[in-house]
Specification:
By secondary structure, the protein is of the alpha/beta class. The protein contains 8 helices and 7 strands; from the N terminus they run E-H-E-H-E-H-E-H-E-H-E-H-H-H-E. Helix 3 packs parallel to helix 4 and helix 6 packs across helix 7.
């Protein structure tokens, strides 16, 4: 089903691999103009080789001045900006809070939360000129549940929901929609590293920790990047024009995180 996204001008952070690449490819399949950044030079090169039409940039999203310059350049290159997808994030440390050092805390919060603040500030002048403006922020199921041994990540993802809710009100007068996506356990290397770290912390096998994590969802399976991309495409389309201020869970009906 076509969503009327032809010519939509999109900037997505961390779009070279994983969830980000699935989102990029989803928008490309709908005829959108896509610009993306990533910190991984090799992944960017692979994305460029597969999709030459994508404008790619290497950037650390936790660098405010670099993001400001990059989004200005991307918007100028595309002739405007209609949609910002704040996808960048890291897992952060898996440890009890007394064992987490300041640098690890700040690195996780800056990448998962502060980067969204930087990107939104830089994108707003362009989004205000769009007739179909939207912002989609990636949060997590950790943005509504406590997440033992993952305090920096959970704190940042709760912050994303607060930022989203506030900006949906603040930017409503500009007809800019702002929503957050809260994925559950997303299939991929990141969640496997988290489960492995938790299994070591708790003295359990990987299989036991994985089974316990999946047991708290009604649908006992991993979320796929495609599930997330499908929802984000809808939110960016005019079919989603009355959806704003929402923290949308895509998690198989998860009840808690452990």
């Amino acid at each position: 089903m076509k969503l009327g996204l032809e010519g939509l001008k999109l900037f997505i952070t961390a779009g070279a691999s994983g969830i980000g690449r699935q989102i990029v490819e989803g928008f490309l399949s709908e005829g959108a103009d896509v610009s993306t950044c990533d910190i991984d030079h090799t992944a960017l090169a692979e994305l460029r080789a597969a999709h030459p039409s994508v404008s790619t940039h290497q950037c650390d999203v936790s660098d405010s001045s670099a993001i400001q310059a990059l989004i200005k350049s991307a918007a100028d290159e595309m002739g405007g900006l209609d949609c910002l997808v704040n996808n960048a994030g890291i897992a952060g440390p898996t440890a009890r809070i007394e064992d987490i050092d300041d640098e690890a805390w700040h690195n996780c919060v800056n990448t998962c939360l502060s980067s969204q603040f930087y990107c939104i500030k830089a994108a707003l002048p362009y989004l205000r000129s769009s007739k179909n403006a939207s912002i989609v922020n990636l949060s997590s199921a950790a943005g509504k549940f406590g997440f033992p041994l993952r305090s920096p990540y959970a704190a940042a993802k709760w912050g994303v929901v607060g930022l989203t809710k506030t900006l949906s009100i603040e930017l409503g007068q500009d007809n800019i929609r702002v929503n957050a996506i809260l994925p559950g356990l997303v299939d991929g290397d990141r969640i496997r590293r988290v489960i492995e770290a938790k299994s070591q912390q708790r003295g359990l096998s990987f299989a036991d920790v994985e089974a316990e994590a999946l047991s708290f969802s009604s649908i006992k399976d991993y979320v796929s990047p495609q599930h997330l991309a499908d929802q984000i495409l809808l939110l960016a389309s005019t079919r989603g024009r009355m959806i704003s201020g929402q923290a949308l869970s895509i998690d198989g009906d998860t009840k808690m995180l452990m």
